[in-house]
Amino acid sequence: MGADSAAGGSYITVRADPKIYRVGPFLIGFTTSFRMGQLLGHNLTVAPRPEGADVFAFMCTTFVEAVRECFARGGYARKEHERESAGTFLVGYEGRVFRIDGDYQVGENAVNFNACGSGEQAALGALHSTAGMPMLPEIRLERALAAAAEFSLGVRGPFRIEVLEGQSGPWSNQEEVHDL
Predict the structure, then answer these.
(1) Is the C-alpha dihedral spanning 29, 60, 120, 125 positive or negative?
(2) What is the DSSP string of 88-101?
(3) pLDDT tens-digit series, residues 114-152
(4) Range of the domain at 77
(5) Distance between CA 90 and CA 134 in Å, rounded?
(6) Under DSSP, is residue 160 helix (H, G, I), strand (E, B) or coil?
(7) Is 8 helix (H, G, I), strand (E, B) or coil?
């Protein structure tokens, strides 16, 4: 998973704190709000997936419920017209990439890479154009982040790249990029 360091809207601040967190068996990268990311990185507790349980179903139920509880405890959960909402983030888990959107829906692309944030279209294009090429995933992520920084005002280095244990090498096909 790769991330930039920018924060802001019509202005840019380069942050020292990360946009990627390791939480147990998960890599979580966020956009939307640093407070949301801090809660995910420092306050999220997810029960283990029962052996044999479907990974996607687990993400849609146990994982999302843990996120909702985390946001409520941390004062981040928003409720309007009896409907909760949050922000957008990516989760790397079990060699797969999941996107959690503001309404807590869980998405999984048919291609096993994704991006979110202001530079997501450039990053997705770069990941697509390098799919199947014989290169390390870290290089693909660096190129995707560089493309996002080139074509988005809201993306800046330094870039951070994290790999789940057992997920690197000549490739498990898991790439994610996000930025703010």
Answers:
(1) positive
(2) -EEEEETTEEEEE-
(3) 999 999 999 999 999 999 999 999 999 999 999 999 999
(4) 2-178
(5) 25
(6) strand
(7) coil
Q: How far is residue 133's CA from residue 84's CA, in Å, rounded to a whole number? A: 41
Q: Are 5 and 19 in contact (CB under 8 A)?
A: yes
Domains contained in the chain, number: 1
Q: Tokens for 50, please give them.
A: 């029962």
CATH of residue 168: 3.60.20.10
Alpha-carbon distance of 175 to 135, in angstroms, equals 12
C-alpha dist (Å) from residue 85 to 14, 44, 51: 27, 17, 30
**Cβ burial, residue 81 (10 Å; 0-12/13-18/19+):** exposed
Residues forming a β-bridge with 23: 26
Q: Please tell me the distance from the alpha carbon of residue 113 to that of residue 151, in angstroms, as a whole number.
A: 19
pLDDT digits (tens, 9 = 90+) for 51-107: 999 999 999 999 999 999 999 999 998 888 888 889 999 999 999 999 999 999 999
Q: What is the pTM of this model?
A: 0.90
- Give CA 16 to chain center in angstroms: 18
Which residues, 6+ apart, have CB-to-CB distance to 163 below 8 Å? 1, 137, 138
Instruction: Match 């294009």 to its residue by tokens.
Output: 125
- Rounded to whole angstroms, how far apart are CA atoms 96 and 169? 15
Distances (CA, A) of 55 to 51, 133, 179: 10, 28, 25
